[in-house]
Model the fold of this input.
Amino acid sequence: MVASDLAYSYNRMETESWPYSTLFKDRGISKFLTESPTSLKIERAFLDADVLLALADGRSKIVAPEAVKMYGDLSQGPVIGTGPWIWESTEHGIGTKLSRNPDYFEAGLPYLDNLFIKTIKPDFDPYVSRTQQIAAFKTGLVDVIRVSSLGWNTLQSSTAEFNSYKSDSNSPNILLWFNTRTDAGSNRRIRQATFYSLDPWESLHSIWKDLGSINVGLPVSSPDWLLPKNSMRQKYFANPSEARKKLENHNDNQPLNIAIADSSKEMLEYAKEIKEALTRSGFNPTIRLIHPSHNIQLLTEGDNEFDLIIGRVPYVPSTNGFLLAFIHSDGPVNLLRHGDKKLDQMIEDQIGEENLTMRKEKLLELQKYLLEEAYLYSPVSDVTGWAFSWNLRNFYPNTALSESIFWAKVWLKS
Done:
């Protein structure tokens, strides 16, 4: 691999309409140049402290230019790389077979001779496919599976013996945010009363079986850049009496129109829980389920029919990418539909801060402000649960930024 392979691959990723075509532009990268076989030069349009995360993202694939030129694309291979695995084959509906790369630059890795990623073909009902995955694990067809909160219930109620691990990517899975252009959403006391009415940690336990964490929704490079549970829960949530105080000057049964833009079983249970909690505080919540296919309309058009929206947002791996795309008032989405200049300034102040200690403090203050204003939070972060055989050793998956190197560090005890 030489520098020109990097430049070719990164420039290829910017192909218009490709899924991550703006990954580098959003980070201020304007051009990739090669000065020698071992030197890559990156020109930047503006300073962004998260720029290296875009280059290190697991989806920033380095490909062999000669393979693309010969076949037009890489849909049928050959897949040529410098990673720990050599691609052997992929069969539709069956899976992908990989073998150990004897020339991998990290001595001794990978530990396994072969890795087979099995496809368990999904059915029309997503919950049936989860059941099939668990059945494959229980019968020994696979050594490890990713498990949802529903999967934990099924496994724990069975007689199967297994080890487990939960990996946190510090990225939001679901967001709850206010539309500040509605009468209720623009009222700070109503927003705060809503947050005080809810106990996200109780919902996380009862619905998601603690498979996840609660935060303000920022994807960050380290968990200690997020506000701790105690300071969040005690100050901003789980205080129904304070919620009723906030609503004292409002009419009884304060209306609150809520959109649930996710149709999973967990979200249906969550909708029921928050409706009951808000009603106890003096709200008159109306909940409408929005089909996931219409979620993009909620994000881009900001339908003023809803005061509060709960749903998924597109995955953005970096802190600045998330803040500039979804939270800044000049962003392409501006989830909150706000014109809060203080919030904008706080976002801008930390964008180019390269002193990690100072940037961490600025981001913690920004999170406090988002909660003080009761703008948004994430009821459940993107945490992945794994169940695996006791014979599988050294399994510590880290899926942040689509990372996969952890597969090279596991082995099976015979």
